[in-house]
């Protein structure tokens, strides 16, 4: 390896450093091959004499390259490509001299692909006649945009594509006169191009990483608003762009974005750094959104909302995703992680602060309990496997980094930050963050830089507290033993497989206990638990609770009698406390550290609960139990009866009729309870869903299904229906005008019970459904007991074609396999999956295969261990 490369990462030599890119895209072929020509002039420093320049390219053809230094020109004599490492080497006969201002001029050709990476095209069906020049791809029209994170700027133009090789960018693009071009900065000028074309150039960007460069062109329109705060003396323009005819659906996002920009400018004590903020809805998108500096791109369901036809649950998603991406404009864009191993710095922080901003704007949404229920439990699930990884993880190159855009980087990262921010106090924490951002603005930083800033702001040694959480895999369970007036506590590593060996359990974590119930004190006492075992004295025997509001990232294992007692003291528990207790009880049953009857008995006491997020956790934890035991008929039927009795009163109370007064959480609760009722055999729910489905799909009464109840009614109708319902849902997928309609119909179709319909559904997923949504169908089939094994057989028989279709964007293939394979409950299936992939080139999804294996083995062990115990409890309580 060249001396500039450290052992754990494959990086470019440091002989040439880009200072500014002047990039021009022209001669775009609109249709057919979708090729384009480009020129890029890279103002560079040459730090030592060299005859070679190595830079990143991927699927790009370089026509020519020359370097100008001190009025002297050096033409390249050879251009060679190293495709696996996504590099091109430019060779010169004479040595290039050391220089502060050399210009590397490259002419190249690229393709606007349809892989959702690099400079790519998205298909869509226009809702109004599009501009005349908008090209078609098959039956649909296309728009063009970029997606460069993590390492795909190199697919669009030759560049030094690493996060710490920052530069400024001047960008211009030639496009048809009737289309709109966007980029990170405001438009600088528009000139006439060749016939029917114009050339739009943009202002120079601040110094930034290549992956943040963004541009788009298409038949766009926008709506605009302004911030309340002044930036450089004037309000900042904020726009949401859509393809023509959709801008009215951008209002909800636009209501949020200016407020969020002002909020972040305030709490970071740094004004938003650019002269404008644009949001763009992109019709095909691999992730949820991407934080291009000044131009953020979004999947349509993460930014568009139609008050008449959308499901209200997407409001929550849009508010949060907009906040998450705007947080990156500071944390990620202004200050960028030094290397991809610290991706969590960007994502974990943006997740935490995204929820913070959402809570600021929507205090009525119970945002932090939502985070405990959705974010934290998802992180726990992945981090409870041996195949998890540390938050900060060695990343060698592009293929490695794609796999860590996962629940550890985002959700364990943000859970750790929540724990630390709660411990230090939010104001102190944000003061440290502000100092960190100011110290490293327009540069790169490491995890340790953040800890230093927080240490200084708080006066506490943050690095020592938090280091094991970042650099070690896993998390602890705190096990409680009771004695009169005091409790013993012990921490050990939690594994969902329940088979912790001494070599797994070598970390002693700093655990902030947040202890309620010390005699003579009100509220929670902060206790730092930093040993393997300890005592807490003066404990009130009538009520105590560890991990107040569940802000700590650990499980708590209470003695069974204590858990049962807490079940009778519901009024003393916050929403987050209840969610945490249910999540812990479910997880400890899975690992065998507690038994499932403890969970069942605890949730039985929550029948009168009215909060959506608590119900969501109850039914989520029960759903895992039901899913693991779905093939054990007696247990499965008993659990259905148990669930129906549990939700009965709540279902009666909430009913089918929506009201204008319903708040966001009530709307969500109605959907959750009715769907659960119908899927578990509630006769009235089934007949009402079928009645409404028939009215709606026959066209007799389109108002029979409220947009918020599509998931419920489609799901129940398909679960208890057959070919007619399937055909009606397929038709719904084809004709829905709603931005979220396809996702909802596709998921419901996956509930088929008649396996004769499976071939058609599979063919539909892989031929008609957009690549960005293939995983939605896969997830539905994997969760469905009737189709799971047949779906796996289909994957094996058709792996070559699935791989070819999805691996053009490894993020998509990786996500598909994870969701398609992790629901098996037996050791045989795990062996079969492992054997199938043995000997295949699995780089890019090898981590996921480890996760799948561990998940299945944990479920299998749970099934073997608890089947008899659960059945006995169900019988004793009259459910079986």
TrEMBL record:
EC number: 3.4.11.-
Molecular functions (GO terms): metalloaminopeptidase activity; peptide binding; zinc ion binding
Domain Aminopeptidase N-like N-terminal: 20-212
Keywords from the named record: Aminopeptidase, Hydrolase, Metal-binding, Metalloprotease, Protease, Zinc
InterPro entries hit by this protein: Aminopeptidase_N-like_N, Aminopeptidase_N-like_N_sf, ERAP1-like_C_dom, M1_APN-typ, Peptidase_M1, Peptidase_M1_aminopeptidases, Peptidase_M1_dom, Peptidase_M4/M1_CTD_sf
Domain called Peptidase M1 membrane alanine aminopeptidase: residue spans: 252-469
Pfam families: ERAP1_C, Peptidase_M1, Peptidase_M1_N
Transmembrane domains' residue ranges: none
GO biological process, one term: peptide catabolic process
Residues the record marks as site: Transition state stabilizer: 410
Enzyme type, top EC level: hydrolase
Cofactor note: Binds 1 zinc ion per subunit.
Stretches assigned to the ERAP1-like C-terminal domain: 544-856
Active site per the UniProt annotation: 325
Gene Ontology CC annotations of this record: cytoplasm; membrane
Cofactor or coenzyme needed: Zn(2+)
Residue numbers binding Zn(2+): 324, 328, 347
Similarity section: Belongs to the peptidase M1 family.
Name of the protein described by the UniProt record: Aminopeptidase
Protein's organism: Lachnellula suecica
């Amino acid at each position: 390896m060249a001396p500039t490369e450290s052992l754990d990462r494959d990086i470019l030599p440091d002989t040439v450093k880009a200072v500014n890119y002047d990039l021009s895209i022209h001669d775009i072929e609109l249709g057919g091959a979708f090729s384009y020509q480009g020129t890029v002039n890279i103002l560079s420093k040459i730090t030592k004499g060299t005859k070679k320049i190595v830079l990143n390219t991927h699927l790009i053809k370089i026509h020519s390259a020359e370097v100008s230094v001190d009025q002297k020109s050096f033409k390249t004599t050879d251009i060679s490509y190293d495709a696996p490492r996504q590099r091109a080497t430019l060779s010169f006969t004479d040595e290039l001299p050391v220089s502060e201002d050399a210009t590397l001029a490259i002419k190249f050709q690229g393709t606007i692909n349809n892989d959702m990476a690099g400079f790519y095209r998205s298909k869509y069906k226009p809702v109004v006649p599009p501009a005349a020049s908008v090209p078609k791809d098959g039956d649909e029209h296309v728009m063009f945009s970029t997606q460069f994170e993590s390492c795909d700027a190199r697919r669009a133009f030759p560049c030094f594509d690493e996060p710490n090789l920052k530069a400024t960018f001047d960008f211009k693009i030639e496009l048809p006169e009737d289309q709109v071009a966007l980029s990170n900065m405001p438009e600088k000028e528009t000139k006439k191009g060749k016939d029917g074309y114009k050339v739009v150039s943009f202002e120079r960007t601040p110094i930034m990483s290549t992956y943040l460069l963004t541009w788009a062109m298409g038949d766009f329109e926008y709506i605009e608003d302004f911030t309340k705060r002044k930036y450089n003396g004037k309000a900042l323009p904020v726009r949401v762009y859509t393809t023509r005819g959709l801008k009215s659906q951008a209002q909800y996002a636009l209501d949020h974005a200016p407020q969020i920009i002002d909020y972040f400018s305030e709490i970071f004590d740094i004004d938003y750094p650019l002269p404008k903020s644009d949001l763009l809805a992109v019709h095909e998108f691999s992730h949820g959104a991407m934080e291009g500096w000044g131009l953020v791109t979004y999947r349509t369901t993460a930014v568009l909302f139609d008050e008449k036809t959308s499901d209200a649950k997407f409001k929550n998603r849009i508010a949060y995703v907009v906040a998450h991406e705007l947080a990156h404009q500071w944390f990620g864009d202004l200050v960028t992680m030094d290397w991809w191993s610290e991706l969590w710095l960007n994502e974990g922080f943006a997740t935490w602060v995204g929820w913070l901003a959402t809570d600021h704007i929507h205090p009525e949404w119970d945002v932090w309990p939502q985070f405990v229920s959705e974010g934290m439990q998802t992180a726990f699930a992945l981090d409870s496997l041996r195949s998890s990884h540390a938050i900060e993880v060695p990343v060698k190159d592009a293929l490695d980094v794609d796999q860590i855009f996962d629940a550890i980087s985002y959700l364990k990262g943000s859970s750790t930050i929540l724990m630390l921010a709660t411990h230090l106090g939010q104001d102190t924490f944000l003061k440290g963050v502000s100092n960190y951002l100011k110290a490293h603005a327009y540069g790169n930083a490491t995890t340790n830089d953040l800890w230093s800033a927080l240490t200084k702001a708080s006066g506490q040694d943050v690095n020592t507290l938090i280091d094991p959480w970042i650099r070690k895999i896993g998390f602890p369970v705190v096990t409680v033993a009771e004695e009169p007036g005091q409790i013993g506590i012990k921490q050990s590593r939690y594994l969902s497989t329940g088979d912790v060996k001494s070599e797994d359990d070598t970390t002693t974590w700093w655990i902030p206990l947040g202890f309620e119930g010390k005699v003579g004190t009100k509220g929670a006492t902060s206790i730092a638990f930093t040993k393997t075992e300890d005592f807490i004295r003066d404990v009130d025997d009538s009520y105590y609770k560890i991990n107040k509001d569940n802000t700590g990232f650990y499980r708590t294992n209470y003695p069974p009698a204590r858990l049962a007692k807490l079940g009778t003291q519901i009024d003393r528990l916050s929403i987050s406390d209840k969610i945490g207790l249910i999540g812990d009880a479910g997880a400890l049953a899975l690992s065998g550290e507690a038994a499932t009857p403890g969970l069942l008995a605890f949730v039985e006491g929550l029948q009168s609960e009215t909060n959506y997020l608590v119900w969501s956790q109850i039914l989520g934890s029960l759903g895992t139990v039901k899913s693991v035991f779905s093939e054990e008929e007696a247990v499965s039927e008993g659990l259905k009866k148990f669930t129906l009795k549990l939700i009965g009163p709540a279902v009666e109370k909430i009913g089918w009729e929506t009201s204008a007064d319903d708040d966001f959480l009530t709307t969500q609760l109605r959907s959750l309870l009715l769907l659960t009722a119908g899927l578990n055999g509630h006769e009235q729910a089934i007949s009402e869903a079928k009645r409404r489905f028939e009215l709606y799909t026959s066209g007799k009464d389109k108002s029979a299904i409220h947009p918020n109840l599509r998931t419920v009614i489609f799901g129940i109708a398909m679960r208890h229906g057959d070919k007619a319902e399937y055909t009606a849902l397929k038709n719904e997928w084809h004709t829905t005008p709603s931005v979220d309609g396809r996702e909802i119909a596709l998921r419901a179709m996956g509930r088929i019970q008649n396996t004769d319909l499976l071939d058609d559904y599979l063919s539909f997923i892989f031929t008609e459904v957009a690549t960005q949504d293939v995983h939605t169908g896969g997830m539905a089939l994997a969760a469905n007991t009737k189709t799971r094994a047949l779906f796996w057989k289909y994957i094996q028989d058709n792996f070559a074609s699935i791989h070819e279709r999805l691996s053009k964007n490894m993020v998509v293939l990786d996500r598909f396999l994870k969701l398609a394979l992790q629901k098996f409950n037996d050791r045989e299936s795990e062996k079969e999956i492992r054997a199938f992939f043995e000997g295949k080139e699995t780089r890019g999804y090898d981590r996921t295969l480890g996760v799948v294996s561990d998940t299945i083995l944990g479920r299998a062990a749970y099934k073997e261990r608890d089947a008899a115990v659960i059945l006995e409890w169900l019988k004793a309580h009259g459910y079986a």
